[in-house]
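Onboarding guide, step 5: your first structure request.
Type a short instruction followed by the sequence, for example:

Predict the 3D structure of this protein.
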Amino acid sequence: MTADRRTDAAPATDAAAALLGALVARGVEHVVLSPGSRSQALALVAAALEREGRIRLHVRIDERVAGFTALGIGRETGTPAALICTSGTAVANLLPAVLEAHHAAVPLVLLTADRPPELRGVGANQTTRQPGLFAPNVRFDADLPVPETADADGSSEQTTLLRSVAADAFEAARGSVARPGGPVHLNLPYREPLAGAVPAWLAEPAVVEGDGSPDGESGALYQGGGGIGGADAAPAETSPHVLARGPRTIVVAGADAGPAAEELAHAGGWPLVAEIVSGARFGRNLVHGYRALLREPDLGGAVQRVVVFGHPTLSREVAALLARPDVDVVAVRGPGEPLNLNGTTVSADAVRVGDGTPDREWLGRWMRASAAAAVDLSPPAPDADALSSAEPQQRLGAIAAEVAVLRAPLDRASLVDALWRATWPHDRLVFGSSRLVRVADAVLGGKKVPVHANRGLAGIDGTVATALGVAIASQADGRPGLTRALVGDLAFLHDAGALLMPGVEEEPRIQVVVGNDGGGTIFDGLEVAETAGAEAMDRVLYTPQAVRLEHLALAYGWEFHRVTTRGALDQLLTSPAGGRQLIEVPLPR
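The system replies with structure tokens like these:
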């Protein structure tokens, strides 16, 4: 068959088939798309791939929601999802997710449909200058040629080029130890006809150059995921940084640090300061109540060296420590931008502990202070003797005490404690950027559970969509577990559109827990609360709201619960859950 005999063919569709087929052959398993006219060829090819069982397809009408859904998939899997949208403002709505993916080094492949070059800058409908729109926040950026001819058998020069570009884009998005992953942007101009029959050769998996295997890992070293680099990057060491035993050292684990931070702290015999969003908040060297301890002269004030994993964002005390000119800071690369708050930070691809004897006095000093600072949020144990007593008054008193525990009203500390206790390694916990994540960081103990949070830029946008992406990816192929997202009311309302899901898609198991204190109470704890008048404070910062969340849940088809006591919340969190649940927890301002 030749191209001119395919009367139902369209160059746009064949080009879309070549590109998406190659991305799937490379390893893309999820495609997230928002419908549109200019992107219809990509959408129809994605639908064909879904019918063949080669991808999971997720359709979202809001491009910002689509972007953060793809971001959540990339966070959970480490493999980019392909993100499809039409031209114009649709593309611009992806920017928040692109920025977060850039700063947190989350893999993402953007496929943005566009008008052909001759229609740019001449007033054509839904047309703007899309090439370079996301620079410098992408790892790979290409404005591809307009496809001119259909492809009879999948072997044309155009198809070969698109497959090669797809391979390059996938590898740039996934990244390596030497270079971080992140978002990539392929801008795809199409002329009419915008869609034709999907070519038969799409059913044959594309052959793409390279084996797609990740870089090798070094079992003897403690490594991050790579750094982004740039003009302001800290000086890099090309060989493993050896951490001598002498200096008084602590290990700091920020967002996305992962278990390597705990492993280094254990190997070196050093205290571990691990944020709740680090994935490293566990182990015998974990420091409780670290914010107050960092302010102590004989603890935080005596630190001589800090080894940093991930991106610390949750406390001013850590930021102040890392900015001190008298402290040696070694930042293990990745994910995200290199850290260099004091201007002399050393960036290393990997670190290892030098020979010598651990400083047990230094570690012991921290561990004693940590034990004293630990917060025990456990309810008092039942009085077994009183409950079984033959004395009615004693027995009734014990029963009343137990009922009081169950009916105890929830506050922020008991809320975060309940979620932390209910979450296990097969589950996922997603923290929104709100007051609650800081409360969790201050009071929760150690536990090795998978945690996600968008702390690259720490924005409140996209949290629900990100959590849905995490849930979709973590529960693929029938894997067990439940995803829980903890958000404030403003962060939830900012992303309410993410509640909408097509009825034909499989529902993930997810509980979105909203701590509803009626507005942005995080501002009450900032300096502005001491200077702003009450009226102005409420008007432009606290921004009070009285949304009926149960009506939102009903409108979008979510199961809704409103709980006010610890007993009711514990029961809800530990009961078998299927599908989507929205849980509202009223909190005082």
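Each response can be followed by summary notes, for example: The longest helix spans residues 157-174.
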